[in-house]
Sequence to fold (674 residues):
Amino acid sequence: LANFSNSVAQKIYVELNNTVPCVRLLNATHQIGCQSSISGDTGVIHVLESEADLEWPLSKGPNPPYMVLLESSLFTKSIMMKMKNASSRVAGVVVVPKTSPPEFSPHTTCPNENTGVYTETYDHNLAHCNTTVWNPRGNGLSYEEFDFPVFSLKEDNETENRGDVLFYSISCYFDHNRVVNGSGLQYPLCAMQLFSHMYAVTDTATCMRRGSIDFSTSPVMVCNPLGDYNVCAFIRPYNSTAFGHKENESVVVAAARLDSRAFFLQDSTGAEGSVSGFVTLLAAAQALREATQEAPPTRNILFAFFHGEVFDYIGSSRMVYDMKNNKFVIDLDNVHSILEIGQVAVRSGTNLFLHSDPVSRRNNTIHDEVTNLVKNLQSSTAGLNFSFVETGFSQPLPPSSFQRFLRARAIPGIFLADHQTAFNNRYYESFYDDAAHLNLTYPSNLSPEEQLEFVTDTAKSLTEVATAVARALFKQAGGNNSQVNNINADPKTKVFGFSFHCVFCLSEPNPPQYYVGVAKLPHQANALTYLVQYLLANLTGTATNLTQSQCKKPDELPNESTYMYSYFWVQGMVPPNSTQRESFCVRTAVRLAKAVSPAFDLGDYVSKEYSTWTESQWTFIKARIFLVASRDLEMLTLGVGVAVLFTSLLVTYFVSTKADVLFSAVREPNNGAY
Fold:
């Protein structure tokens, strides 16, 4: 019976398996995102060919509600808000990714404006991007709430025996639904049903409170905090169990962010927004490895890759909180200075720009240290094809993790970016900020192995930036100047079986998840975090002679310690004329540090100091296409069904009342006596 029902369902529905939904997020004050009704939303498909076509689903069409199918070029705030305001006639929206528009940013014009350093108390003239609008292309679409489902439909979506579903969706529309001479075609019509019902409503405080109510032995959470792990590594490791201030220790922090977002969170790519920065820092860390081992600088260097920064600086605010509360291996007083790498892949010329905080520089000591850091950076570009240019003192810092450190303490620092004022990134926090945006393309005749060896122009450009950053960090940490010219990043350097060049493939199709996601169980991180952790370990660690079993339990050996180092078993490369990989154990100072907002540890779900973003739970995500009959035919079918039901009831009643007549046994005649 189950197989029969499945067979019937397959004949009725075409399942859309490769879809990405818009989901609901919540913070201390409100909710954003999309959802369907609990039973899913169904509508007649209408393919939007231009903005003028909106008149049909929003007013003229005789068969509402409509499921609007549109190409990404029509996925604009103007069109989406018109459909939002007429949501009674719109059952949902399906976006088909196509060619990139000239510009598109669904983020806000002033990212993280309420959780940075510039507030009414720090310098009200610089608050809320009053002097510099960093993302003027931002339309805020990602921060709107829609009471209908919105899905992204992949072009490569296929189902068994049905061919390409995207083609089927459009052909189904043209066969059954397309408007001809102002009127629709006859029934049956092609319809779509979307399921994306969200559990959480209102705000984070409400959903966390509901999730804490224990109606059973296993309460159901209706929302989960956003978060993951930061990736950290010192060039000279500290005991991982000894928290708090380190006497006579001074640390230069080199930082970048890992995450990005888009309207469809799982479509986040962030090639310019985040990947360009953390790839550059990875390359700089590798370039510094040999120099810092041969001639260790007087100051330590911390490489910090922050996660969740898009959502009100989750990762950096957590590190600052831990430093302030003696929950990290150093504290804020150990931090000498900060160099953060932002968006660096889309230059408008040969210059990259050095941003600093004008408020903290009013202190002469801070100003002198920042000036020295600027000199170290500018002198490090000798022999390279670009220059570092300092921006004006009156301009505030762009959105950056550095701002969270400044909220706690005045620290000298520089934020490095490819923009002097507004972002060069035309696709900030959108699914168009991908490999094509950075021209990360390869000749079509190259094999995957050859692509790893091929150096794109973008790779060359970021390698030069990494070289300059590595040299500047070495100088800032008090390194010997005689070593500086030996510090060079190489996009094709292979270290411990990993090709550094593969990092530039992060924004190719099927990349890791750049959206931070929800906080997971202890010692569980998302794929991007693990990827960066292992890459950093291989680029900065040391190969050992430990066996695989020793690598898993190094504390059993006299000269090894998991308090000081992490140990990873690496598959290694396949040598020439061999089919076996040369595996080995890597000793590294790379650690993962919790990147969940302190607000959830403190139970302060309405915090104005820390991020309060959560993601709603849901039952399931599903989309399917089917043919729907006319209302008249449905009512006729219902009427016939009801008539058959009552007729069967009457027949049953008649039969049951006359059963003694209809089913009485024939009596045998009495036996005669002879």
